[in-house]
Structures are given as C-alpha cells and as structure tokens.
Amino acid sequence: MPQPIELHYWPTPNGHKVTIALEEMGLPYEIKPVNIGRGDQFKPEFLAISPNNRMPAIVDPEGPDGQPISVFESGAILQYLGRKTGQFYGTDERSRVAVEEWMYWQMANLGPVSGHGNHFRNYAPSMTSDQRHLAYGAIRFTNEAHRLYGVMNKQLEGREGLAGDYSLADMITWPWVGAWKILGIHMDEFPNVKAWHARIGEREAVKRAMAKAEEIRRGPGLAASGKEAEEARKILFGQRAR
Q1: pLDDT of residue 130
Q2: Which range has the top average pLDDT, 51-55, 225-229, 233-237?
Q3: Are 74 and 14 in contact, with CB atoms under 8 Å apart?
Q4: What is the C-alpha to C-alpha distance for residues 172 and 77, in angstroms, rounded to an integer?
Q5: CA-closest candidate to residue 151, choices 97, 90, 200, 102
Q6: What is the pTM of this model?
C-alpha cells in the first residue's frame, strides 16, 4: 500500500492547488497544517523543506528510486505529481507544452497580480501619508487582473480547459479565479471563465479538496482579532531577510 504524501498546507489558493491535484490523482496524503498567521512557515523544520518560507510543500516518502523527496513551490509540486502519476500532464510533447504554458502563465501572472490586488484593495492601511500610492496600487492590479480574465476568456472559447483537456493548468488556476469578488471582477463580463469555474467546482475531487480546506478553517483557535490579528498581519507582511 502506498505511503501517504506529507502535505504542508494552509487553506489559501496556493494550498488548494495541491489538494485538488492529490484528490484528482487519487494519491494518499496527510495534511500538516502550516498556520501562516502564526508564523509556522518560519519554523526550522519547515525551512528544511521550503527554503523560501512559503507553503505549500510536500514530502513524498516514495520518491525517485523509492527514496524520499521534498518539493516546494506549487508549480513544481504539480509538475512532480503529474510526472509521478502520468495524469493530467498531456500525452505527448505538444500537449505537455500547452499545459506548461498555462501553468507558468498562472504562476507568473494571475497568481501574483491577484495577490497584489487583494493586498491593496483589502489589506493596505486605510490611512497613509500618500493616498495616491495606495489608490495607484489598487487600480493598477485590479486593471491587470481584468486584462488577465480577458485572456482566459478568449483561451477558453470552445475548450474544456485552458490547455484543451482538463489538466494541471486548470487545477493550478482555478483556486485563484475564486478571488474574483475581492478583486472587483464582474464574472458576467467573462462568460467562458464563469462557465469553466463553475464546471470545475462541480468535480468530486475538487469538492473533496475544498472540504479539507473547511476542516482546517474550522480548527480550534484559528480566529484572530484585536492584538492577535495585528500580530498575524506583521507576520504575513513586511518580512525582510533573516
């Protein structure tokens, strides 16, 4: 019986990518919560497998040649799992290239832009010495997110997934499209994206992955307010080299 993959995870879009892939591929796994609001990502034992202090990361006890391997960065994790199982990664070089194009598009474009847009729209201080800088950041990343949704909408015309068939490219992108509300995106402007997002959300593996996220969110002692919330904010933002 295969040994479970150890998944270091927190319920964020980047974390969801990996639970979705693991569920879709039918791989056994065990979640090790990394509470990023409490600073778990800076613990030495996590640094040993994720030198960038960011989750997700995995440890596969049955890696290459049967030896354990750790992998950090969500894109690298999904590619590793795709190679390991031979699933959702294309069946020939052309289809693999298409999957990789849209995976890297998400990692280089949609993910960072959505994250920055969310920060400026929802986390940036309400009072600043120069409100123009705050407004510029919010407008800049909201507009770029809108442009990227347009790119997706064109790509999904007549296609099941971003790279054709449902693939790693869709698993890595779908969780970030869930941020459309907090980015001020109106999904009715992008009917192909809206239909694609709903279609993937109905997949049983995706439902199972999101149920795991809810289990983590409902865990004891996770709600933060007041001073505790402010301390979490300091941990999440403004980090410098250690």
Answers
A1: 59
A2: 51-55
A3: yes
A4: 10
A5: 102
A6: 0.90
Q: What angle, 0 to 180 degrees and rounded to 10, lies between the N-to-C axes of helices 168-177 and 191-201?
A: 110
Whole-number pLDDT of residue 127:
45
**Is the per-residue pLDDT at 187 higher than 80?**
yes
For 39, 176, 178, the CA distances from 172, given in Å and listed in that order, are 25, 8, 12
